[in-house]
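Contributing new complexes? Match this layout with thymidine-5'-phosphate.
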Amino acid sequence: MTQIARFITVEGLEGAGKTTVLNAIEAQLRTAGIDLVTTREPGGTPLGEEVRALLLGHKHDGMADDTELLLMFAARAEHLHRVIRPALAAGRWVLCDRFTDATYAYQGGGRGIDMARIATLEDFVQGDLRPHHTFLLDLPVRQGLDRAAGRSEPDRFEKQREAFFDAARATYRARAESEPGRFRVIDASQDLDGVLAQLKTSVAALLAEVGP
Ligand code: TMP
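Output block (do not edit by hand):
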């Protein structure tokens, strides 16, 4: 394939079916002959995975909101340096489980950190690098939390109240509305077959858009 390498992200609240969707996108892209790197945030590097453990675990419950925000961007800086930029420079596509839209949704919407401060850090850490395409798996908060309940011991984010996720969802949706060219919103409230059907069409449209 000769297209410019694309940076694709997948976003959504807990219980949206992100893992299944990531696997389906990966399979469809690989079938189309695309050389792909799959990764995740927070994480994606040895340092980033250690930061992820700090962020999701309960050892530092009650960390300051700014600490949480800066740790997200610290892990991201390492991820960009070691994985994302080198892959794109080598012409490989990157499929990433969450990226900076999650920071706007969770730290901005959920925690209430000023979005302008997040934008400053985004520019500082990423320069002008932004995802080319973002799949947002959208579903009512309650439905997602019910699906996620009982899966495993809740992490530091899964322990948040419903109002936190309401604000995160509203932020995701507002971002999707303001950047319709980048976002593809998938109705994740449907059953698995319905979600996968929407996704297949959406990935096919993306492939058609970027051309052979
Ligand atoms: P997950 O990858 O298993 O969905 O878990 C990651 C958690 O971290 C999830 O609750 C969302 C949260 N998160 C943020 O709060 N801000 C971020 O910038 C990122 C990437 C994730």
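Reviewers usually confirm one structural detail per submission. For this one: The longest strand covers residues 7-12.
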